[in-house]
Amino acid sequence: MSDASYRDAIFSTPLDRVARFSFDEKVVACFPDMIRRSVPGYGQILGMLGLIAARHLRHGAHVYDLGCSLGAAGLALAGTLPPSAFRYTGVDLSPAMVTRAQKTLAAECPDHAMEVHEGDIRTLAYDPAGMIVLNFTLQFLAPEERDAVIDQLFQALEPGGVLVLSEKIKAADEQENAWLVERYHDFKRANGYSDMEISQKRTALENVLVPDTLAGHHERLTRAGFSRAHTWYQFLNFASLIAFKDADALAPQEA
Ligand code: GEK
């Protein structure tokens, strides 16, 4: 049995002071289980990435997966597209994630061009790309840092390129938000998390994961220059957007 199948029990015992959440060795070991049981729609979103790429990616283009964790988006793309269709670069801040992603991708898709690097998406020198995947990563940056990253991604995208942005969101209306959060906790309970695990994880993520509203995301994408963005997926307080860079926008090197 591979260690990818470890069950997430990080918050299953009472901790006197719950530490801030971090992507360390402990989280990496149970990450596939944790994200599947904690993010509504995670598998469906991954499943759609290949179909979105098949429609929107220029053949042979470069794809970034930012905050790639264990490279799940890369695996999803390689599962749908042939090796000649794209070149993949995964980037993650966590060395433990990067090491595991490199091993997994080398073993699972040896014929595809897949690279994973340790890096900070706030300071990366971006190469041009036809598609950029930000799957539940922007939410971990401080709110005031998010505009600059989305601006950079717009610049890095080739004309005709797409950004897929998946995020935990909050509803602007307080009552609606409370309802979504309560049902989200029901979802986690139904997936085997105890009340204590739910409440301790919530404390650990306070000030680490600060969600924006859907309107906030759309406004940021418009400010960065994207001509169009659609919310193509929502399940409770989790959503995925696709943003399009006009085919006649200036190429990255001319911008
Ligand atoms: C998936 N996309 O499985 N630069 C690079 N990586 C970062 C940064 C940063 N500044 N901040 C956080 N990360 C994945 C899931 S998980 C989402 C993404 C979750 C990384 C962090 O190390 C972690 O691996 C990832 O972003 C967020 O489709 O755990 O809810």
UniProtKB/TrEMBL annotation:
Keyword annotations: Methyltransferase, S-adenosyl-L-methionine, Transferase
Keyword Cell division tagged: no
Family matches, as Pfam families: Methyltransf_25
Reactions mediated catalytically: prephenate + S-adenosyl-L-methionine = carboxy-S-adenosyl-L-methionine + 3-phenylpyruvate + H2O
Major enzyme class: transferase
Superkingdom, natural source: Bacteria
The protein's Enzyme Commission number: 2.1.3.-
GO molecular function, one term: carboxyl- or carbamoyltransferase activity
GO terms for biological process, alphabetical: methylation; tRNA wobble uridine modification
Presence of keyword Methyltransferase: yes
Methyltransferase domain location: 63-161
Record-listed S-adenosyl-L-methionine binding positions: Y42, G67, C68, S69, D120, I121, N135, R202
Function: Catalyzes the conversion of S-adenosyl-L-methionine (SAM) to carboxy-S-adenosyl-L-methionine (Cx-SAM).
Matches recorded under HAMAP family: Cx_SAM_synthase
Family to which this protein belongs: Belongs to the class I-like SAM-binding methyltransferase superfamily. Cx-SAM synthase family.
The protein's assembly and partners: Homodimer.
Protein's UniProt name: Carboxy-S-adenosyl-L-methionine synthase
Organism: Halomonas daqiaonensis
Gene name in the database record: cmoA
